[in-house]
Amino acid sequence: MALLIPDSLRSNRVFPATVRRVAGALGTSLDNDVTVWYEPMFDRTDTRPDLVVLDPRYGVVVIELLKGADKSQLLGVVNGELRIASDGQEHSIPSPLIRADQFAASLRAALSAHPTLSKVPVGALAVFTNQTRESADAKRVGTVVDLDRCLFKPDLDLALSESDPAPMLRAFARAAGGALSTPLTDEALALLR
After folding, report:
1. Residues paired with 152 in a beta bridge
2. What global pTM score does this model have?
3. 168 to each of 10, 55, 110, 155, 164, how far by Cα in Å?
4. Which distant-in-sequence residues (6+ apart) come within 8 Å of 91 by Cβ?
5. Which residues of 19-55 are buried (b: 16+ CB within 10 A; e: fewer)?
6. Are 21 and 156 in contact (CB under 8 A)?
7. For the segment 160-188, what is each residue's pLDDT rounded down to a tens digit?
8. Beta strand 59-65 with 73-78: parallel, antiparallel or unpaired?
9. CA gap 33, 193 in Å, rounded
């Protein structure tokens, strides 16, 4: 089981249901040398990503969830933007993958100056907790989001029910550019933490 920070991330109702679900899937199915941080716990100004995963075999993966997914319905894409219905109203929301890419680029830039960490891969993923890939395709989400760098409801269900990390690991590999030829050293992991 992956280390979750905070350790109550999968069960404490203080955290949004979607975050608890994704954290549960990550925590249950990933190896015990993987660390998952819930960043808004440390900065509630919405200037940090939802989750950051440090996996010695892939590097760092920044994860953003579809905002408001536990209280809204994804309608599709209108004029190049994701549209959701929430509280009886429709509105546009930013792409979670674009946001994750921005956080990943910022982290990559910070690591680039460090002699030991400059080559650590930093990838970005989006999570659609209530969608299948097929429903995302039907709603044309793929026109604004690279669906190959997304996790969907069936991926989470598989991780939670069977502790099968395969869909997540494939997504990590696509996000980070593949598995590392040599896992990150303990020294690199300590510096990254």
Report:
1. 128
2. 0.90
3. 17, 12, 26, 7, 9
4. 83, 84
5. bbbbbbbbbbbbeeebbbbbbbbeeeeeebbbbbbbb
6. yes
7. 887 788 888 889 899 999 999 999 999 99
8. unpaired
9. 12
